[in-house]
Design brief:
By secondary structure, this protein is α+β, with helices and mostly antiparallel strands. About 40% of the residues lie in helices and about 25% in strands.
Length: about 70
């Protein structure tokens, strides 16, 4: 199982590869496999894309948003 820091870094890397969003706009936290995304995006499509990108990462059990 990945550590929280590894999981956080993997999700941030995955967000960088998502063409519809700017990874710098989204904060990432991880605890026990649960990833929390925070920040502001200007459309629901970008929010959904960020959630999908985070969920794609191996080791992510759930995605929460702030």
């Amino acid at each position: 199982m990945k550590t929280d820091v590894e999981l956080q870094q993997d999700v941030m890397s995955e967000l960088k590869w998502e063409p519809t969003i700017k990874a710098a706009e989204i904060g990432v936290g991880a605890k026990d496999g649960i990833v929390t995304l925070s920040g502001y995006v200007d459309s629901y499509a970008k929010k959904w894309a960020a959630e999908r990108a985070a969920a794609r990462v191996f080791g992510v059990k759930a995605v929460a948003e702030e």
